[in-house]
Amino acid sequence: MIELLVVVFIVSVLATLSWESLANARKKTQVGNACESVAVLANKARSYALSGIKDADRVRVHCVANTCQIQNFNVISLSWINMIGDTYPLQAAKIDDFDIFYTIPYAIGSGNDVSRVITLISDASITKTLTTSNFKATCQ
After folding, report:
1. What pairing do the DSSP bridges indicate for beta strands 127-132 and 137-139?
2. From start to end of 2-122, where are the E strands?
3. pLDDT tens, 39-54?
4. Does the N terminus or the C terminus of the chain have fewer Cβ atoms within 10 A?
5. 56: confidence class by pLDDT, cuts 50, 70, 90
6. Cα 19 → chain centroid
7. Which domain holds residue 114?
8. Predicted local confidence at residue 105, as pLDDT
């Protein structure tokens, strides 16, 4: 009976340790996914500016209230217009409000060489850094 109790105790300790490890891995994955999604939006915005798709000569990634959108500047209304289908809500992570601008012909603009920290909402110690330049956005 004592041997059985010892075995049950050891199994429960191992299960607890593995559960915590899996929970941390899940949190890191959530932040990583959010960071990669914003990086994809930034790279897509740069591609739009380079190609002039949808008459976009000035394009920005606009992140506010944990939602990031690709927008282009409408010269007729002199305002930024959302490009359809390019909105990403950060559900498990948060990021400070910011803009990344790209203009043609080289997709070079102001505010591009920056690093932004994306943080897990439920655990601020788990972060990823979004680094953007004139040429590429990456997560580290």
Report:
1. antiparallel
2. 58-64, 67-74, 79-89, 93-94, 98-103, 114-120
3. 888 888 888 877 777 6
4. N
5. low
6. 26
7. 2-139
8. 58
For tokens 């959302």, what's the residue?
82
Per-residue DSSP letter, 105: T
**What is the distance between the terminal CA atoms of the chain, rounded to a whole angstrom?**
51
> Would you give the DSSP letter of residue 55?
G
Residues 59/36/66/118 CA torsion (nearest 10 deg)? -120
What is the CATH number for 135?
3.55.40
Q: How many domains does the chain contain in total?
A: 1
Q: Is 87 exposed, middle or buried (0-12, 13-18, 19+ CB in 10 A)?
A: middle
pTM above 0.70, yes or no: yes
Strand intervals (E) in 75-125: 79-89, 93-94, 98-103, 114-120
What is the rounded distance in angstroms from the CA atom of residue 107 to the CA atom of residue 46? 6
